[in-house]
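Researcher: Next sequence.
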Amino acid sequence: MRAVAHDCDVLVIGGGIVGLSTAYAITRAAPGTRVTVLEKERGPARHQTGRNSGVIHSGIYYRPGSLKARYAVRGAAEMVKFCAEYDIDHEVTGKLIVATERSELPRLHALVQRGRENGIAVRELGAAQIAEYEPEVRGLAAIHVGTTGICDYVKVARRLADASGAEIRYGAEVVRIDRRPGLGVAVRTADGQVVRARALVNCAGLQCDTVARLTGDDPGMRIVPFRGEYYTLARPELVRGLVYPVPDPTFPFLGVHLTRGVDGGVHVGPNAVPALAREGYGWGVVRPQDLALTLGWPGAWAMARRHWRYGAGELRRSLSKGAFTAAVRRLLPAVTEEDLVPAASGVRAQAVLRDGTLVDDFLIREGAHAVHVLNAPSPAATASLPIGREVARRALAVLAEG
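Model: Next structure:
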């Protein structure tokens, strides 16, 4: 029984940027380690990685000392270097965070302090100085964060896949996992293939809690999917770079913002509304099995009771283009409904605890022969290189334990 033949040393489930960064980090830290990546889609980065604003976040928002703060600050610099090394479209643009109401000024000042604690240089601006960066933007005060940038994360993911040296299997949906103490794991895919590995790494994003349970581990959380709806700006000349509102510190969402991408177009959004499927990119996409998982989780109901006012506002902006436009006009008064052209949506894989707490940091847990990445929404793309190294370190420790 002990002489089982393994197809690889480490099996990574999930071909988004975190899974591919993990594979890349493993083969660099331990050359010769055999890594296989299983991705259920026909290519990499089809979900969170490929459906975001493409922002390289500075790390200013996150609690000092948290994984998000440390990995985003470090990851932003590394991502810029990675893109330059591999000739991937990117630009360090800087961004404005703008207060449009007096009640937001204390929160804006708190962000300045948090940024400095996280080692980020920020410049405080008065109302008149905002026009130096964004002539069409209006606000009472703002801060300029110089290290924020933009890039093409799909190209980054593809480059990580190529450079990792891992075997990448697309169209490989995991349906069963058999774990045997001392032997490792055997994973069956929907097409009947079986892959045996000494260790498993779960980077399944929107499906990470399901994969954890297939492994036999209790993740202690549930993914509650939130859809972020975007528009593109028909008059991109209204915005030079990146413009954000002051976020509500009780939520992990950053609010409706304006992002000039590497293609020159301007993304507007996202809002955050509950999705009716893990991969529900529109109101018409409903998956009863996913919905049952959300509604059957006590934390989802506790979260809804606690934050219903916030949720009602997001829902209104989803159902009413006029309400969405009004939110944008707080920052950019010149915008009209006709300026906003519907664009592809994304879904955020947000971990929610049993008591309704929205997990506000990256969450990585371990089980026998397994490492689970259980909360890695934004800024995970920015932080993907340091996250990958940390997950790789844990996976290699699992291998060393036998």
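Model: The first strand starts at residue 8 and ends at 13. DSSP finds ten helices and 22 strands in the chain.
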